[in-house]
Amino acid sequence: MPVEVSRATIFVEGKPFEASATTNLLDACLSLGFDIPYFCWHPALGSAGACRLCAVKKFANEKDARGRIVMSCMEPVVDGLRISIDDPQAREFRASVLEWLMASHPHDCPVCDEGGECHLQDMTVMTGHVYRQYRFKKRTHRSQDLGPFVNHEMNRCIQCYRCTRFYRDYAGGGDLAEFASRDRLFYGRHEDGVLESPFSGNLVEVCPTGVFTDKTFKRHFTRKWDLATAPSVCVHCSLGCNTIPGERYGTLRRIRNRYNSRVNGYFLCDRGRFGYEFVNDAKRIRKARLAGHGSTDGDDETREFLLRRAAEAVAGPHQAIGIGSPRASLEANFALRELVGAGRFYAGVADNEWRLTELALKILRGGPARPASLADVRLSDAVLVLGEDVTNTAPLLDLALRQAARRGPVEAVVKAGTPDWHALAVTDLVQDARGPVFVAATHRTALAAVAEEFLLTPDETARLGFAVARRIAGEASPGDLPPELESAAARIARALQAADRPLVVAGVCGGDPAVLRAAAAAARALSNGKRKAGLFLVFPESNSVGLALLGAGSLKDGIDRVMSGEAGTAIILENDLYRRLPAGAADRFFDKCRSAILLDHVHHATAERAGLVVPAATFAESEGTLVNAEGRAQRFFKVCPPPRGVRESWRWLCDFARAAGRREAAGLRNLDDLILAIAAEFPELAGIREAAPPAGFRIHGSKVPRESQRSSGRTSIHAEADVREGAPPLDLDSPLAFSMEGAPGIPPSPLIPRFWRPGWNSVQSVNKYQAGIGGPLRDGDPGRRLIEPPASTSPGFSVDGPRAETVGAGEGLLFVPVYQIFGSEELSVRAPAVASLIPKPVLLLHPDDAVMLGIGSGDRVELEVQGETLSLPAKITAEMCRGAAGVPVAPSGALGLDLPARGKIRTVRKP
Amino acid sequence: MITEDDRREIEAAAARVPVRRAAAVEALQVIQKRNGWVSDEDLRAAAGLVGMTVTELDGLASFYSMIFRKPVGRHVILFCDSICCWIQGYEKIVDGLCSRLGIRPGETDREGRFTLLPSPCLGACDHAPAMMVDGDLHGDLTPEGIEAILERYK
Amino acid sequence: MERPLTQNIRPGEEPLDLKGYEAAGGYRAARKALLSMAPQDVTALVKASGLRGRGGAGFPTGQKWEFLPMGPDAPRPKYLCCNADEMEPGTFKDRLLMEGDPHQLVEALILTAYAVQAEVCYVFVRWAYAKSARLLEKAVAEAVEAGLAGRNILGTGFNLDIRVHSSAGRYMCGEETGLLNALEGRRASPRAKPPFPPVSGLFGKPTLVDNVETLCSVPHIVNNGADWFRRLSLTGEGGTKIYGMSGRVKRPGAWELPLGTRVREILEVHAGGMKEGYAFRALLPGGASTDFQVELDVDLDFTHEPLVGSRLGTGTSIVLDDRTCPVGFVLNIERFMARESCGWCTPCWSGLAWIVKTLEAIEQGQGRPEDLEILDRHVRDLAPGHTFCALAPGAVEPLGSALRLFREDFERHIKEGRCPWK
Ligand SMILES: Cc1cc2nc3c(=O)[nH]c(=O)nc-3n(C[C@H](O)[C@H](O)[C@H](O)COP(=O)(O)O)c2cc1C
Ligand code: SF4
Ligand code: FES
Question: Is residue A26 a contact partner of residue A73, using CB atoms and an 8 Å limit?
């Protein structure tokens, strides 16, 4: 942390307490466990002093008995500070503030989605406001349609400014603002329309009342206390944001943020928050299906049948290969590896991507730059992003980088004496100043708003990166850059070198190994004795790193084995090979394969081709471990048991292995067995044991309940079917129980199923779970970092990159991937709200290239890449670099192609 | 539609300030001076010129009382409804205006000639009751004198 | 009697142009200061003169100037903002100065900017004062032409760019930090203090905000010295004051008088006493956000006003007569305040709206006995420090004092179910 934490003694109601002297009084008091009501203050947004609810009495000294009212959020903690929270005058004032806020509030809690987890309700109770004296007409507003994610009900607004402070000031969104003034303030858009920020869903949690609520939740609404919840991890990108899914009656109802100070902090992206509905998809695989035999139902028979078929396939005369998955847990992948044998376990990932993944992993392991966490990113003071469109491949990284962009200027202000938490003063002082953030990408990215952006081909990006690295290392530039990039490299190098905590970001999705090497070289050059540069490498999927750590073979080798006839059976884990291979290649593979067994939950082209489809559980119905881009192993737990006939992939695979008589699998009966086996086999993965307590963990003999304590009781939950109290399902794989009975209180952080404390029903209750406000959870943040590179510089990557490695060198036009936050990721596109926002696929071309190719805007063009033909309308834009064409990674786009790659292009017809 | 002159004037204003958004209010005033009010279309054009999003600029415009986001008549009458004019009976003047124009405060008459709006203190307390028509101050108003004043604005 | 601020002002006539102003002794102070005084000397002189802000808060002017960082390491550019928003109901003194003698203000700006070494000056003029803005712009152009403003003033190397900004309308633009936000193209809600504008102001740079009338005293202080200035006032607080009076008095208007002139003198001598048939009941001595007072025998200045429970404010009084309903009077003021609330802090945006509705109910005969307690509570709750800026505390000054002084009138409204004045 940049700020040294000094301590102060403050007196609350005359008693001394130790507090941090670098914070405000509200934060300090909440950290000490006192309850002070508040609205406008937010730990990530700082103090605004607008709502005036956090009033306390401050005394000048011991003798001062009168004191004066101050806003605790605006009061710096100083040694000897004397205050009273209980003071009658302060109480009266707080009650008045609440009464003012409630004056025009519609009191529509029974029909409000926020009811039961509403910060306004909590604060109303806390301040003791029960009787309404206001007897006049309330002000009313017309609400807006803000798109498929966020519902707007302005009449509930209490004008606390949190929404705009988050959306505009924190997340950089330009389409939400305050309108009008006085008691008629309106928070909305210029006109109805979809909120543009990919972080809009956080409004739901940031808003302390029901103005902004989750529109997807609304369609299958359930009160918070009727939701079963469990700690989970987002499966929609490689960042591994911690989430709390909520379930009722077998449907997943919503996703909420689960605080983790090292990872997502308080926020999620919209893909992660609203992508969950794939779990409820009607087309989901819920029944086992044998080609030619239709689907089978009925738990036990299905299970027996599947075990028999799988055993035959594995043990039969045709050797089996296993194709793993970057979106399946470590445990599931490992179970597959156990089933087919280590030598026949292949990564279910396109070849180039796999090479890059292994390269990225090697870089991270090699050091000396540390794999940065998102928390590190937020605190970085100079950033170089090479070739990765993070907003669309790892959305929350964009949000973290936006904080990094302000970091330097904010620190300058802090050094000059204005505290960090004083958001208003800091904003006024910082104005539009931004610290150094540089982005080199093939097309304009959202970060351009806070960064200096260079539109370059992957090859140019790599050269720029190496030039920066060489300059930092004090070596001469190879002189292979045009002058303006040469001087840019000098500028970037200077800025990074001047920083205390420089950061380099790159990724696998950009698709170019030379770019990765360049990023590694820059980060390495920046890491000297006392300064450790951060390095953040984005991976494509939620467990890409985990899969790589399990050391699979490349997909190509696996396919070759089948194509050569050496193996006849393929067991495919949670994977659609049509996203990994060009369609023709995938078709040939399935034509050749005698028996293809797929375990998955979403329906896709591979499911159409598999001979046997085994219904697997989604993340919401299973547990397991995922390793995120930082190399952090994190455990997710099921919120509900899998539907009838569906089981966790790892459970199917272990059973298959036993049925096939594989000795190694004999002892693998539950999740903990798998975890121990993985740890034993892969020393680097030993840490996953500490990602969460084992199934046997108990608090005073009790499990942690997934349901909240409520007097309606458990019996009423299924009252529509049966009023008798059925036994709750057992959970043998985790320390969590499928009921409301269990240990009260705060469980170890990886097991926190929801945030709730007496009097704090809203998300604000997270304050009570933290060691200090905004700090780690009480017993440390969940997850275990697996990759800690050696601190010393080890020989590895020279600052010179073998340029020949740049992909796609050769004839034809270079096609590069253009990722989309909504559309590129396999699971979330099955959520109707997300699907409705997938943009129409277009081919991006720079005007100069378009002229050269004779292509006009809107022309339909045909691309021939990797033996596939794609037809897309062209979009001519200066937001694309020269020398490459951008192909959307989306349905009817580049899915299945291994980009970047060269190919042909021709105009089919002018519209 | 925003004119070339408007654009030049806004550009000049933006060039004089350290950040373009600091010219936002001036940009709106430039448009309003020509057009009487700021339409959505003009707002969009102005937003681009001062480096703000439409939503940001609209939020700003809606804060200030002297930026009109709805069409107004050829002449805008701002009658002072603050304390000194109240003491001196501004309500009678407003009643007179209303019946003369056939509208209520906040409205524009049928010919589109006058828009009648209330205004905070015009700083003419020594000549209360007062009103302002297109920037001209008229003080010591009497119900009988109104007609003659309105006659001057065609 | 000396009337330095208004000596050049001839009602009904065009103000002096540059030549006329110089002939009347104008720009002597600017020449003197720029050519022979160090910036800090000007500040020291102003401090010694005892000049206090005429914008309503009465902060010692020289002391505020000293808060600006000086020297080669001070952040640049520094800004000077002249507060000519004057939206306080009942106040029209700054208009008099700007329309009557614009060059006096321009000279004041040059002197002040020199003292704090500001390079850019904004005159923030209220929208309704288009004439003032026009005259100021002309005066600035003349001064630039004559080498008294603009680049390299009087060959000293000192630069000052003076710009006139017309407000888009909101009382909050007059609050000094709201003014800064307005100039930055933001909503004019106030900023947190500290940091105060002299440390972090316009565009995050050191900024001095002063009222028109305050600044207009500066040339005269430079010309005639601190002692002279102190002696101008009757009570030693320094200077003259433009006092104003409106309401049902014979001759409403504004007059430059020694600071510390008695309220009775202003009413009876300068305003000509009450209109025929009306009797004096009370007055708000310094604009709509000061407390009512019934005493007439009090020196209208910074120290004596608080003794009768009010304050000097802007020094322009509004008189309540015996035939005007005090409830209606206060309602009108609170309506203004509620309408002008920026909407930042709850007590103000919600509390004032509630006050207005309650007063409306009382005025319309719908009041309830408990309404007075509700109003009392609001007065208590909207105290300084409870709200984010001074608008709301100012807004409840007339209300609180009215509840104290005219309680029977409120009670009669409620008891009789009607306004007894109607
Ligand atoms: C709501 C509000 C409105 C104000 N309006 C004005 C104004 O119109 N003119 C002014 O000079 N000061 C106004 N002030 C006072 C200013 O905040 C500030 O104190 C003053 O401009 C400082 O100048 P001075 O020290 O020269 O008086 C206002 C204050 C508040 C709280
Ligand atoms: S008191 Fe509060 S709401 Fe009122 S004007 Fe000041 S900051 Fe705005
Ligand atoms: S939380 Fe302190 S004023 Fe809102």
Answer: yes
pTM, entire model: 0.96
Query: What pairing do the DSSP bridges indicate for beta strands C316-321 and C240-246?
Result: parallel
Instruction: Say what the alpha-carbon torsion angle A832, A836, A837, A841 is, to the nearest 10 degrees.
Output: 120
Rounded CA separation B90/B131 (Å): 9
Q: What are phi and psi of A674, to 5 degrees?
A: -65, -45
CA distances from A37 to A120, A121, A162, A240, B34 (A): 10, 11, 15, 32, 50
Q: Which fold has domain B75-151?
A: Glutaredoxin (3.40.30)
Write the residue with the smallest CA distance to atom 30 of ligand 1: C175
C148 lies in some domain: yes
- C358 and C296 in a common domain: no
Give the domain B4-63 fold.
Arc Repressor Mutant, subunit A (1.10.10)
Chain A from 170 to 229: CB within 8 A of any B CB: 174-181, 186, 189-191
Indicate the residue type of A454: F
Interface of A with B in 419-438 (CB under 8 A): 431-432
Is there a single domain that holds both residue C60 and residue C175? yes
How would you classify residue A759: left for phi > 0, otherwise alpha for psi between -120 and 50, otherwise beta?
left
- Give the ipTM: 0.96
Q: Which whole number is the average pLDDT over A42-70?
A: 96
User: Which residue intervals of C24-116 are DSSP H helices?
Assistant: 28-36, 39-49, 61-66, 93-100, 102-116
Looking at the complex, report in whole angstroms how far the Cα of residue A825 sits from the nearest Cα belonging to chain B. Answer: 29
The residue ranking higher by pLDDT, A806 or A593, is: A593
For residue C88, CA distances in Å to A113, A618, C80 come to 44, 65, 22
What is the residue with the minimal CA distance to atom 18 of ligand 1? Answer: C176
CATH number for the domain running over A807-909:
2.40.40.20
C344 with C311, same domain: the answer is no
Q: What is the pLDDT of residue A807?
A: 46
Query: pLDDT (tens digit, 9 = 90+) per residue, C176-225?
Result: 999 999 999 999 999 999 999 999 999 999 999 999 999 999 999 999 99
Rounded to whole angstroms, the Cα distance separating A265 from B66 reads 42
Ligand 2 interacting residues, C-beta cut-off 6 A: C 172, 189-190, 341-345, 348-349, 387-389, 391-392
* Cβ(A457)–Cβ(A846) below 8 Å: no
Task: Answer yes or no: is the C-beta of C340 below 6 A from any ligand 1 atom.
Answer: no
Alpha carbon of A743 to ligand 2 centroid (Å): 47
Q: Pick B126's closest partner by Cβ from C246, C248, C288.
A: C246
Angle at alpha carbon of residue C59, lines to C53 and C61, rounded to 5°? 65
Domain-located, residue C6: no
DSSP-assigned letter for residue C299 = B
